[in-house]
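User: Could you check the structure of this?
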Amino acid sequence: MQTIKAAVCHAFDAPLVIEDVQLAPPGMGEVEVTLDAVAICHSDISYASGAWGGFLPAVYGHEAAGVVTAVGDGVSEFALGDSVVVTLIRACGSCPSCAGGKPTICETPYDTVKGPLRTATGDPLEQAMACGAFAEKVVVSHRQIVKIPASMPKDVASLLSCGVITGVGAAVNAAQVRPGLDVVVIGAGGVGLNAIQGAHLAGARRIVAVDMTEDKLEIAKEFGATHGVLATLEAPWKAAYKALGGRGADAVLITVGAIPAYEQAPRYLGRGGRAIMIGMPHTGAEASYEPVILAAVGQGLIGSKMGDVVIQRDIPWMIDLYEQGRLKLDELISGRWQLDQINDAIEDTKSGSAKRNVIIFNNS
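Assistant: Sure, the predicted structure tokens are below.
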């Protein structure tokens, strides 16, 4: 076991504590990655607030990039010094879901409390989301990482681990947006902006962003939205209908976890349209629908986890698009912070103004 610094959650809805923790060496099929950057996702904030329960103490963080510094037995495709992104998708590769091309819903359980992390005194410490990347290093399955160009900035690359693949993947994989379709994206935060990018790249005819503030709607247009609608309107779906030329959307991407957004989403749909459920409400929160309406006009609700991606397939082409200047990543970063500033970075993210805040590690 080696000692590293990590931001540890000891109590829900309380500040994280920077302290020494123990990290085991990589086992069979695992790699150690020394991190250069980890972005703060709203899922980390929800977990740390107790929205979904879980074991404590815990180390959150799952949107990271760094360099491979140790390799366990049975790993042949990665070597010391490889630059990689680290995701939370710990897929076994052989269960029915993985074999069917859906590793994001792998059926093989992984006990995150019995993972590689321990407290400084050797007590259990949860490696949240099979990642635990609010730390200087992580030990993860080789299936959770993807090589990136060594020249690619790690702060930018870290965004590919969750927010980008979730948003772009939801548009391309889950909604199957194709040229000529009309799309509504509810929420213009980090995931929402990437859903807009995905719809734009896929050739959508019109893309309507829906958000609470004019500022975020203007930013959404920089990422490919053709129109913006304030969610604070009495009936924002009517404004979206008008923006789409007098018709409902073929796809509505719900990128926030707010229940009103989920309940209103079907109102934006046209005949045969699909609402893609991406944002994660708190446990126990419920939305209601009138199913006869959906049934009568052939509409549907579809859940999408992590953009339904296959990271080894999808991250490389997203990197290619970034290098061509067709996928915006640098523009997604709102601020860069040190590990000891993580609580300030989380509060800034909670304010709703940030696209993505990134923690930078000083490993040089």
